[in-house]
């Protein structure tokens, strides 16, 4: 019983030490037109559209699409969780 308790404590310590090193890393992707794509490994967390358009959606987890006609630019805020250190 003591051996399994020690193993559980070591496992919890390992999980805690990994979680303590997590960081949210974000970048912005910009594109002309109605679509902006996040770099590989990043997820879209929000979008912005040119020409005062406030209608957008996230497609496939990593792309922003502005829904207004004749959009001149689109940007995507892209984030991922990384283990650092």
Automatic annotation (TrEMBL):
It comes from Podarcis muralis (Wall lizard). InterPro entries: RELM, Resistin-like_sf. Pfam families: Resistin (PF06954). GO terms for cellular component: extracellular space. It is found in: Secreted. Belongs to the resistin/FIZZ family. This is Resistin. It comes from the Eukaryota.
């Amino acid at each position: 019983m003591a051996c399994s308790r020690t193993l559980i404590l070591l496992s919890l310590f390992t999980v805690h030490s990994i979680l303590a090193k997590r960081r949210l890393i974000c970048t912005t992707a910009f594109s002309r037109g109605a679509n902006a794509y996040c770099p590989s490994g990043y997820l879209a967390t929000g979008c912005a559209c040119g020409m005062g358009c406030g209608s957008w959606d996230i497609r496939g987890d990593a792309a922003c699409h502005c829904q207004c006609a004749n959009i001149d630019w689109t940007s995507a805020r892209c984030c991922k969780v990384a283990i650092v250190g």
